[in-house]
Amino acid sequence: MEKNIFQKIVEESIVLLKNEEHTLPLEEQKKVAFFGRAQIETLFSGNGSGASKALAQKNILSECESRGIQAEPSLKQFYNSQQKNEPEKFVVDGVDITGNENLTCGLMYEVFGRYQPMWEEHEISEEMMKNAREYTDTAIFVLGRNSGGEECDRHIENDYYLTESEKNLMGRICQIFENVILILNINGVVDLKWIDTYSAIKAVLFLGIPGEEGCGALADILTGRINPSGKLGFTIAESLWDYPTANNFTWNKENPEDILTYENYGLSAAKNGSIGYDKSPVTLYQEDIYLGYRYFDTFQKKVLFPFGSGLSYTSFDIVPKEVIQQDEEYEIVTEVTNTGNYAGKETIQLYLSCQNTATERPQKELKGFEKTKLLAPGESEEIHIYIERKELAVYVEAKASYILEKGTYCFLIGNTSNKVETAGEIHVDEDLIIKKCTNCLQIQECNVEQLRFLSAKSGEKKAEHYDNSRSESCRSEAALKNETAELKDFSIRQLAALCVGYGPGIPFAAFSDTKNPETIFDEQGNPLTVNDHSIGTNGYVSPAIPEKGIHSIFYKDGPAGVGTGAWPTEMLISCSFNKELWKEFGNAVGGACEKQGVNVWLAPAVNLHRHPLCGRNFEYFSEDPYLTGMCAVQITKGVQETHNVCVCPKHFAVNEQETYRRGSAKKNYDAADSILTERAARELYLKPFEMLVQEAGISFIMTSFNKINGIFAGGNKDLCTHILREEWNFEGVVVTDWGDMDIVVDGGDAVAAGNDIVMPGGPPVIGQILEAYEEGRVTRTNLERSVSRLLHVLKKFS
User: Fold this and answer.
1) Per-domain boundaries in the chain
2) Does the predicted model carry a pTM greater than 0.90?
């Protein structure tokens, strides 16, 4: 039977981190003792919008047995008898609110924001341990993690670190069995330094959150039917405190004293515009451009498992051959030979290292990669990687420009970030401006004197702020009038009603019994808009005015499934480093969306892995912006090229912390303010979105709840207009994340800034927009511009 894309992509994404004494692959009909609840209660998805429901009854144990692995009977029977089988409910403060009128938007985010601790491992009796050891000398321990998620970051104790029950079980297993295989069925990085203290742990596999087809892929790798070829899309450090972001990340909602605020950095909440709140959370991106391997390699910090690393059952010889310059592009040619005894695939990674440039750069930056075909033992393949000249440039804030600076640029080739060799180099004799911009998203001037950021040259550097003039629009008035001419007969109330989602203003309205109105009405009491989508639920559709030819479209989460099963999550998918598979995955997603009647898929999520405890790292691809962007671009092409479906990338932008990303009305906390340099924003956190706009032809983009340097992302004109539209030439629709506007940006301010649609919207936000119109904060031109963008993309679905 032909494998589907969801199994194939996991086969190439699973990362073999350790394999001593050739423990893997297992011999045929190998007897194994299986431990860990996740062997049966295998984790197929994360939480929040990244959750999905598995339709197939599969798990790691059953799939391994179907491939001939012989599970020790008494342990199998024990774990099956202990399997959790409880219905899931939404509970807040002990009250079940499933299908209840109390399920308002703010309350729903309190549900997502309640940390759920990881399960405890079952106690295994001495008799079972003894029987298992008499059966085999080999044990498989499946470690599971599904904590955190939307609105909720993970914890350190009993989450990043092992729980006491896991420590006890792991210790007992390693005392009794000679060969232990550790499988990581986890939604984020966990502490792994302890594996070197147990000589019995011979093999370690990163499985991540694989979706329901991933168990078969794992079993095929364990038995040698598939040779692992995954490479880590993130760094696994020796300690949590080795990450450069460790001291600038808030995760513990349970202890208000742990919430980092402006005051922690000597800043004024009032001067930053946060007034009247009991707390004003802050996330300081003090590491600046030194994220992930950029930090560890530049500062020569030892790690457990480097970015881009991953083992194979075979070996490869990688020989750089030549660098060919072709106008605005460089071609790096490498020959790869399988020098081992198994057929396998290898990933060639291209890094850029800059020397003697005026602006400091990380020691290396990923700029390209290619995966070989399946190479038989002794077989070779010539790999060609292309890099555009503009990708060599650095963003210089003082000049508001991307500049290819005078200096030497080395192209490094390898199969792991810390194992590379020079493939060639070029010399630039004078500075060349690649693109002139205007300073945007800058550190607020009131913060400049207090803030310092990490520097490889001097240890730290001062924050900067530049006052550059800006043309408010690069669009001519004639072009704008032509775009909005069809709207001259629309009333202000109609325009306002089209700048929101249709429904009562509750993002999860389909689960609620609320009877709140879903639109506003004309003087005769008739609704101005309706939902005319055949299956789209209120709160997830755009409003329709059928008599004017405007019809509803249906938005739906999420990255790991739209109701047709559980798909592998982005953190795992990135590890395949296979562009063709990503596009094939996107094609499957597009087909599933069409089957479900979905017009706009609320994905991919392209924020970065900034800190290991981020509750949504499973939902994000990587710590690297280029890898993240390339994953998203290929998936988007797969969705959009052959299906009448659009993607909506999220969360735009700088949303790498879930804790109080949108604040808390209940606690009177403001939304978190992400404070970072303009350069870090552009080179790292905006890069994947820029790639999606310029290379994938996206028509939708979703803003985030958080602030960026004091201004809400959804009401940030620098972000939604100056960068997105004027610099990147985006012509599509900007929608907000799904949330009430009690703390995040006012609907009128959002539209004025260039955020076209406020979701889920409804009458409360329509009211905000009409009030803003009366006050002059939003104009008819603003409203017409946003509605014209919506009408333009609606034509894709007609």
Assistant:
1) 5-240, 312-436, 477-797
2) yes
